[in-house]
Design a protein that fits this description.
This protein is mainly α. It has one domain (12-176). Helix content is 67%, strand content 2%. Strands 1-2 form a two-stranded antiparallel ribbon. The protein is elongated and about 55 Å long.
């Protein structure tokens, strides 16, 4: 498999970044659910990991965005209607926006709660805002709403990929799956 993208598929770099970020987003959900059910002491460790993973997602998404801007993209299917191309671009833009906004909202929420954001204990981010306890609950609601929106967009994104694969029988999903050959025309 090649590293870079081509007109017929994404390369190893784009595919790896896509699936690593996707897996980490799922892991974030698991960590958040575990934190809600944990004791206060356990929550500190779980939320510390949650924050570090959030920063990792932010960095990988920035790397992926830079890679995508510098690389070619696979051609869309020949007879793809313009409205679906526009919807696909809009969906990807919203996915990127949410993937960047979630860590930022979590960082601001942590600062408002006066709980530092440390990256796996290696370094601590400066607080972007002064502690403001009255902001914590609204920021938790924003963070939760952003994640709920991300979940909805991921479901739409996944359903569209499956629709292309099983109904339209084109190569859209195969572009992002490592090791799958294109269908014969």
């Amino acid at each position: 498999m090649q590293l870079g993208n081509t007109r017929t598929g994404y390369g190893l770099v784009a595919q790896s970044l896509h699936w690593i970020v996707a897996g980490l987003v799922v892991y974030q959900f698991v960590l958040a659910q575990r934190a809600e059910a944990a004791s206060l002491f356990q929550q500190l460790g779980i939320l510390g990991r949650h924050k570090s993973i959030g920063l990792t997602i932010f960095a990988l998404a920035a790397l992926r965005l830079a890679w995508n801007l510098a690389s070619s993209r696979p051609d869309p299917p020949e007879h793809e209607p313009r409205y679906r191309l526009i919807l696909a671009r809009a969906t990807h833009a919203v996915l990127y926006a949410l993937i960047f906004l979630l860590p930022v909202s979590g960082w601001i929420m942590s600062a408002a709660a006066n709980t530092p954001v440390s990256y796996f204990g290696w370094f601590t981010l400066p607080n972007p805002v002064s502690p403001r306890q009255e902001w914590v609950e609204p920021l938790q609601a924003v963070h939760g709403a952003l994640f709920a929106t991300l979940t909805a967009i991921v479901i739409i994104h996944s359903a569209a990929a499956l629709y292309h694969h099983f109904v339209l029988k084109d190569d859209v999903l195969r572009h992002m799956l490592p090791g799958l050959r294109r269908r014969k025309s």
